[in-house]
Amino acid sequence: MRRVLPFLLALLVAPVWAGEPGASVRHRGYDFRPVTTFVNGFVGASQEDLLDGAVLVVMQNGRPIYQHHFGSYVGTGPKVPIASASKLLSALVIERLVENGTMHWDDTVADYFGTDYPDADPETGAITLGQLFSHTSGMTVVNNPCLTYAYRNMSMDKCALSILGTPLSWTPGTLFAYGENSMQVAGAMAQRITGKTWAQLLESELTTPLGLARTDYGLNDDGTPFSNPIIAGGARTVLPDYARVVQMLLQRGMLDGERYLASTSIAEMQLDQTHGVPADPESDPYPEAYGYGYGQWRNVVDCDGVATRISSTGILGTSPWVDYDNGIAAVFLTYKQTLNPQLREDLRQLWDVVADVIGAPVGCTP
Questions:
Q1: Any signal peptide, and if so, which residues (predicted)?
Q2: How large is the C-alpha radius of gyration of the chain?
Q3: Pair 296, 269: CB distance under 8 Å
Q4: Other Cβ atoms closer than 10 A to 171
């Protein structure tokens, strides 16, 4: 086993994000200069239409082996919106409820809503919780108006009822269509069965057990949580928080010696829960992926179809991923984000650049 540099040992008790802006953590045996060069190619305040700032951390064996701040990203940075990287966090909340028997992935909309929603029809009522979280529910990818900031404090239940009252665009279970409506319905189902708000579920099922100090789904000026947070795209977080999430996934449900989820639950989330149905080309940001699990993309699979690299990248650039082949967990967190059509491809290439470095150690670096 490679020896860790002495100052890295201190990081066992220090935050993994410690360090001055631009500082890198290096590990004996790896040369991360290609990673730094690659990211500098699409991050920097002086580069028009590119990301203004970002931070990347790569972890192995529970320790950071690389951390670098790019552009204007300073220190740990403020909480930033992470768009679709929220989906993985929300899926973990639901998986915890499934694991403890409160919910089941084959539960249906009708099991929770009955005929409460307008123009209730059997096809909508038969949609399962699993279909809601794997984007195969048949619901339109056009966001319901209740999934906007203006409706952040309506009830999530009312928002879900509005979504359920909208005609389906496809027969459930026949098409993968990536969007936000279906997950909002699932969140309302979780609220109905537990009697808790989404903010309370977030605390009991995610932030407290994983020790996430600065993750939320939006707060009002008085500090109270939004009552209708967008659970598929409304989370905010900081680097150390999401770093703990991906580290737990890399360790198959363990973190700090404690069991957060069973390894079988992690495996269930990473199966192709679309069951191979075709994808809607207009809404599929990763057509090259090997299907979609619960809240995460299956970017690389082995010969048995088991996911060996998963991710949950958001449109604003935040990209958490886990590479089981190389034994690494990583988070690329953006700051002062800019929508950029090239960004999705840049991030996909970043995963490969990091993998190349880890897969081909070159000995000690200065």
A1: 1-18
A2: 20
A3: yes
A4: 10
Tokens of 101: 């028997």
Task: Look at residue 91 and give its three-state secondary structure.
Answer: helix
Q: Rounded to an integer, what distance in angstroms lies between the CA atom of residue 94 and that of residue 97?
A: 5
Beta-carbon contacts of 200 under 8 Å, excluding residues fewer than 6 positions away, are none
Give the CA-trace dihedral at 213, 7, 39, 294, to 10 degrees.
Answer: -40
Structural contact between residues 311 and 290, judged by C-beta atoms closer than 8 angstroms:
no
Nearest-5° Cα angle at 82, 259 to 30: 65
Residue ranges per domain, the chain? 80-236+263-328
β partners of residue 81: 236
Q: Are 28 and 50 in contact (CB under 8 A)?
A: no
Cβ neighbour number for residue 166 with a 10 Å cutoff: 16
Q: Which two tokens stand for residue 187?
A: 């969140």
* Residue whose tokens read 């969140």: 187
Comparing CA positions, the residue from 209, 246, 232 lying closest to residue 87 is 232
Q: CATH assignment of 80-236+263-328?
A: 3.40.710.10
Q: Which two tokens stand for residue 224?
A: 């109270």
Residue 42's closest CA among 313, 285, 346?
Answer: 346
Per-residue pLDDT of the chain (366 residues; tens, 9 = 90+): 333 333 333 333 333 444 334 455 555 579 999 999 999 988 875 555 567 789 999 999 889 999 998 887 655 667 899 999 999 999 999 999 999 999 999 999 999 999 998 888 899 999 999 999 999 999 999 999 999 999 999 999 999 999 999 999 999 999 999 999 999 999 999 999 999 999 999 999 999 999 999 999 999 999 999 999 999 999 999 999 999 999 999 999 999 999 999 999 999 999 999 999 999 998 898 999 999 999 999 999 999 999 999 999 998 889 999 999 999 999 999 876 656 678 888 999 999 999 999 985 544 443
